[in-house]
């Protein structure tokens, strides 16, 4: 299968799936290698950029997702009224920042830095799927360790946790 | 003029402290040579939404600030203590300030990410799932058949293929009793000799039942000289020991 | 607004909306005339065709809708419903062999030959579509008769049951 054909089939798959799809899933469906899949994905990304198409192809961790181009947001929003998109509260953002930078982190570590109880914000981030439990710390009480998810990357529009600005 | 702070607008005591430091335009390091401690205690005491239940963290911080201040009035030890609460608080405040800056950057990332839209998955009718079964080869099928054939008892083909057919009994217990009696009348016979001529399973079973029946009725008896030795069958009732 | 830019904003809007959107709605969101909207839509349609993209833009009366390209449907289906791989157990394969060679066969016949209960393997073969019920034997209890299916032939790559290797 040629890269250009593969890339347009991937476009169709991403369009139908809506949700994030992984490279191995696509490779299996197209019966091509993961390397070939990645080539096709990169080809598609370059094509979207050079043609300034209506959407972009973003990678969040292992997942790929089609999204509308940010520049067109005003038009899209006008079409989609009412837009019910919420940004995170200051408290949630701070809790998330500690977990993102120190992951895996316990609630105790977050509370230590923030100086307040964080039960509510940790629960709320879990509910939103932005963090997940990844095990328990080998310490007194074996507290739960939390890390960020692919959905976290998606929420902040980054492909990898290393894209966050480094701490001073 | 007194300024009132609502505690709820701050994410904990560190947040309020940072706010006061920012307002006073001083460095975090200088909080203990400033009025920040007094401002903090004032702010907590006069907060219109002060609730001792919810403000416990603020109260704890206020208590710590008072303690640090009072220590400062005492003569200083010659060298700084290992865990100097003053330095510890400055370190916490510095770390918290960094955290707030990171959270601000993340909020900017979030803001631009909120400008892009995905879409819900399409709902399309799917064909029935394809099932691929591994290891289905003619050879594997053939091997399976051979395994079955090997395990199946020999000479049972007839019974296997027609398990539901009930055939007429070719061999009856009565018939076999007569056959055995006829042989015994000609003289004593070895047990094995009864089964000569390749009888099938049904015939073997019937012959054996017939023999047991004759033994029970006292029309035949069996003798065996050694343990596991040959069994010999005789006509009539066994004579009791000493009958001779 | 240029036609090409309008067309790519329309692409973004149709992508997000999923459902059909009307020409007047789009014209309003882009603040252009309906005529201009239609020109942009037609431009987009030609672009999709000439580039053999993953989707096509269909017009249903006044409504516009993005749909995946029909040629790519098999890949999309494979993505949404991956092929499930299974293997047969030794027991199932033996049951299948007995039925294949003696068909139509009852469960009783299989059990007689194999010397074990075969309820599970018969059910599993039925579920996999390798055997089917073909009637009932005129015997005590009227037991179900099983025979192999076309799918059986397909799996073994033969066109007729007589192509099975013959018994020695």
How does this structure look, described?
The complex is a heterotrimer, with 2 copies of chain A (168 residues) and 1 copy of chain B (244 residues). Chain A is 50% helix and 16% strand. With 168 residues, chain A is α+β, with helices and mostly antiparallel strands. In chain A, strands 1-3-2 form a 3-stranded antiparallel beta sheet. Chain A has a 3-stranded antiparallel beta sheet with strand order 4-6-5. The longest helix of chain A is centred in the first third of the chain and has 17 residues, at 34-50. Chain A is globular, with a radius of gyration of 19 Å. The relative contact order of chain A is 0.11. The mean pLDDT of chain A is 89. A 3-stranded antiparallel beta sheet of chain B has the order 2-4-3. The radius of gyration of chain B is 53 Å and the shape is elongated. The model of chain B is unreliable at 155-163 (pLDDT under 50). Helices cover 49% and strands 7% of the residues of chain B. By secondary structure, chain B is mainly alpha-helical. At the A-C interface, α1, α2 and α4 of A face α1, α2 and α4 of C. β1 (131-134) of chain B pairs parallel with β4 (84-87) of chain C.
How widely separated are the two ends of chain A? 48 Å
Q: Which structural class is indicated by helix and strand composition of chain B? A: mainly alpha
Query: Order of strands across the widest beta sheet of chain A?
Result: 1-3-2
How do the strands line up in the largest sheet of chain B?
Answer: 2-4-3
Q: Total domains of chain A, how many?
A: 2
How does the major sheet of chain B shape up?
A: 3 strands, antiparallel
Average predicted local confidence, pLDDT of chain A: 89
Q: Beta-sheet strand percentage of chain A? A: 15-25%
Largest sheet of chain A: 3 strands, antiparallel
The helix content of chain B is 40-55%
Uncertain segments of chain B are 155-163
CATH architecture call of the largest domain in chain A: Orthogonal Bundle
Quaternary structure:
heterotrimer
Determine the most extensive contact between two protein chains. Answer: B-C, 33 and 45 residues
Order of helices and strands of chain A: HEHHEEHHEHHEEH
How many individual β-strands of chain A? 6
Individual helix count of chain B = 8
Number of beta-strand segments of chain B: 4
Shape of chain A: globular
What Rg of chain B is obtained from the alpha carbons, in whole angstroms? 53 Å
């Amino acid at each position: 299968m040629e890269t250009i054909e593969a890339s347009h089939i991937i476009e169709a798959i991403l369009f139908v799936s809506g949700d994030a799809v992984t490279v191995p899933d696509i490779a299996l469906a197209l019966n091509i290698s993961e390397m070939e899949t990645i080539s096709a994905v990169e080809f598609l990304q370059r094509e979207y950029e050079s043609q300034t198409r209506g959407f972009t192809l973003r990678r969040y961790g292992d997942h790929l997702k089609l999204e509308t181009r940010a520049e067109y947001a005003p038009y899209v929003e006008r079409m989609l009224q009412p837009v019910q998109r919420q940004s995170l509260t200051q408290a949630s953002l701070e809790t998330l920042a500690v977990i993102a930078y120190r992951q895996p982190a316990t609630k105790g570590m977050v509370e230590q830095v923030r100086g307040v109880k964080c039960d509510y914000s940790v629960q709320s981030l879990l509910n939103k799927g932005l963090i997940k439990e990844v095990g328990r710390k080998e310490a007194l009480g074996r507290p739960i360790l939390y890390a960020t998810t692919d959905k976290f990357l998606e929420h902040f529009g980054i492909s990898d946790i290393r894209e966050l600005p480094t701490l001073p | 003029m007194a300024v009132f702070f609502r505690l709820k607008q701050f994410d904990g005591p560190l947040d309020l402290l940072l706010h006061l430091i920012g307002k006073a335009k001083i460095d975090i390091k200088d909080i203990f040579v400033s009025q920040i401690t007094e401002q903090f205690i004032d702010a907590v005491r006069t907060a219109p939404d002060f609730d001792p239940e919810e403000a416990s963290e603020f109260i704890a911080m206020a208590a710590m600030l008072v303690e640090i201040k009072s220590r400062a009035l005492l003569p200083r030890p010659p060298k700084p203590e290992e865990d100097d609460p003053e330095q510890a608080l400055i370190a916490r405040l510095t770390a918290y300030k960094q955290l707030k800056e990171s959270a601000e950057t993340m909020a900017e990332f979030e803001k631009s990410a909120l400008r892009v839209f995905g879409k819900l998955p399409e709902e399309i009718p799917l064909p029935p799932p394809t099932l691929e079964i591994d290891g289905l080869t003619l050879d594997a099928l053939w091997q399976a058949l051979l395994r079955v054939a090997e395990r199946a008892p020999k000479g049972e083909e007839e019974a296997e293929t027609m398990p539901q057919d009930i055939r007429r009994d070719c061999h009856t217990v009565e018939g076999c009793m007569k056959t055995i009696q006829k042989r015994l009348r000609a003289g004593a016979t070895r047990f094995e000799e009864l089964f000569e001529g390749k009888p099938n399973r049904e015939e073997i079973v019937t012959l054996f039942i017939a023999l047991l029946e004759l033994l029970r009725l006292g029309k035949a008896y069996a003798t065996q000289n050694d343990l596991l030795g040959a069994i010999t069958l005789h006509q009539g009732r066994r004579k009791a020991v000493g009958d001779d």
